[in-house]
Amino acid sequence: MPASTVTITPIVKKTQASAAAAVANSGPKTRTWAAAQVVGANVPARKKEINLKALALQQKKEAQKKSQQKAQQARDAAICERARAMREAQGDDDDDDNTAGQDLEGLDGQRDSPVPPLDKEEQDDQDLDGPLDEDPDALLFHGSDDEHRQAERHGNDAPGIVAGHNDNDNMEVDLPSNQIQVSSPPSTPSKKALNCLHIPSRCLLADEVRMNCCATATQQPFPSDKHGYNMEILQDLAKDYKGEDDMVEVFARVLASVDTQQELVQFLGYARSGFFTNCMAKAREWVATCFGLPGKMNSTEVKELVGWLLKDGHYKYGEVDIHNKTYNTKLPFGCEGIAHILRLEVFATEGGANIEIFREIVNVRKIAPTTIALMITFIEHFLNEYVEGVYRHVEFSDTARPCYCFHLSSFNHIANKAPKWANNFATSLYKLILTQSNKEFLLDAEADDLTEVDIEGLEAAAVAAPVDNRGPSPLPSSSPHCSSPLHS
């Protein structure tokens, strides 16, 4: 056995040396194969390293997500805790003041307020705690005594009524741009107008949320849960508000009072309805002019024309000819009324709550399907008022929701099968409205009219210049066109 062992060892070493020499003397293919074998030996280690890095990255993302969730939960918990403390404090005050005040129903009857009457404890708190302006919640939604006295001097009943707009019996509420009138308010499920004393038009929270609510009117015109939808807008505003006021504290006070929530949500509904009312007026003007309703036609002719327009949505096409009863099937949703309503109500107005809708549309640089469906709903609503051949006014309200959903589904049905057409249509409609509104400058994504400016030279000079905190240097006094007051 020892002899055989001694014999085998040199043979093995000789074999390995021969293999190495063969590889060294072999061609390119053999050397490549050998190198691949060496690299292949390191593949498992490389895969393991990659998997470890991917796992670490995933764990890092999960940790960041959990930290964000914890921060959000802590913020929500702080808001709820503050609201709970306020409710408990209010409950303690109610227990101490149970004996004050008796005839509250008579007082509410004299005020003729459609808002649900306060219970006995809440009214006692107002009687015993002094003027409204001493209570931050009351001041937030009712206004101060000085505001009431100033409103009475201008001939108004309460703060929140715009002075100078009381020439007739109709009183315009809140900002003039909304055109909301108490005597003829937009239709709501409750069919009741807010009492003037409870409209928080001077409240910063209400003003900010009113604009946000109008901005989302074209995105979600008919929310199924109005209260929850508006409360979400309130919460988002409280979190994202960048002003000096603490909106989180204001929102906590809103959460502490169910009555305040109802009043504020109802007020936001009226601001939203103001936009719908104005759009409906523009739709009536366009339909009456474009289709000649009623014109010189009798009731039978009007009924026949409206029936043809409504059949299979003929009015939604472009190039509609009411005399020859023709339309262009290659222009679905080519109704000119869509651009007409948006141009007059959103793009041609100055200021007001509609400026937020304008900004939303300009940011995406196209008209959203929800906005298109809403404009078509306005047009069809007016056509339905002539469906019997004579005009019968119908309030535009939540009953139009099925019609809106139908038109939105109709547009999405085409858009899903022809996405390129849908995108081009939304963009071209946006450009058409801007052109009609004399706002073509918004079509330029990047203005570059000063072509002779050496931008790189300007930047290089600014970087090379020493930092000077003394402010800009004065203009040279030798200029023949301008002079600086520093040299006078």
What features would you describe in this structure?
It comes from Rhodocollybia butyracea. This is DUF6532 domain-containing protein. The chain is mainly alpha-helical and 488 residues long. The chain contains 17 helices and four strands. A two-stranded antiparallel ribbon has the order 1-2. It has a two-stranded antiparallel ribbon with strand order 3-4. Helix 2 crosses helix 9 and helix 10 crosses helix 12. The chain is extended and about 80 Å long. The N terminus and C terminus are likely disordered.
Can I get a quick summary?
This protein is about 60% helix and about 0% strand. It has helices spanning about 1-25, 30-95, 105-110, 120-130, 135-140, 145-155, 205-215, 225-240, 245-255, 260-290, 300-310, 335-345, 355-365, 370-385, 400-415, 420-435, 455-465, and strands spanning about 170-175, 180, 320, 325-330. Helix 10 crosses helix 12.
Strand order of the largest sheet: 1-2
Structural class of the helix and strand makeup?
Answer: mainly alpha
| Biggest sheet features | 2 strands, antiparallel
**Tally of helical segments:** 17
What would you report as the Rg, rounded to the nearest angstrom?
Answer: 36 Å
Distance between the termini: 117 Å
State mean pLDDT (0 to 100 scale).
Answer: 70
| Low-pLDDT sequence parts | 1-14, 99-118, 120-145, 147-202, 477-488
Strand content: under 5%
Order of helices and strands: HHHHHHEEHHHHHEEHHHHHH
Residue share in helix? 55-70%
Shape: extended
Beta strands, count: 4
InterPro entries: DUF6532 (IPR045341)
Biased composition (Basic and acidic residues): 78-90, 143-156
Protein name: DUF6532 domain-containing protein
Pfam family, one: DUF6532
